[in-house]
Amino acid sequence: MAGYFIAQYKVNDPALYKEYQGGAGPTIQAHGGELVIFDVAAETIEGAPPGPQTVVLKFESAQAAKAWYASEEYQAVVGKRLAATEGFAVISQSMNLG
To answer: pTM of the full predicted structure?
Structure first.
C-alpha cells in the first residue's frame, strides 16, 4: 500500500527554503520517492491551513516514507524547512476501497 508524505505550509524565508529544496530532492529519489504535487498556491475550500504551499510525495509504503524522513540524509536538511516555514506534515497511506 502506497505511503504519502503530505506537507502544507507558508514559506517565511524563501532563501533558506531554496537551500532545503536543493538538499531534499536527492534524498527523495534515493529512497524511491516520487513528487506527486508541488503547489505554491493551493486553494483552500475548508478550514484554515497554515499557508498555500502543498507538497505530496509518494513512497512504496508508509514505512518507506518514514524511513526516508528518518534517514540521515534527510535529517541533515529538514531543519532548514522547519526553520523556513510554518505548517505541518503527515505521513499517510492509501486505502483499498471495496
So the answer is: 0.92
Nearest Cα to 36, choosing from 45, 28, 46, 24?
Answer: 28
Backbone angles phi, psi at 2, to 5 degrees: -60, 150
DSSP assignment of 46-64 equals SS--S-SEEEEEEESSHHH
**pLDDT for position 95:** 75
90 with 50: CB under 8 angstroms? no
Q: How many CB atoms lie within 10 A of CB 3?
A: 21
Q: Average of pLDDT values for 21-30?
A: 97
E strands, 1-84, are: 3-11, 34-39, 53-59
- List C-alpha distances in Å: 67 to 2, 6, 60, 63: 13, 15, 11, 6
Domain 3-47+55-92, what architecture? 2-Layer Sandwich (3.30)
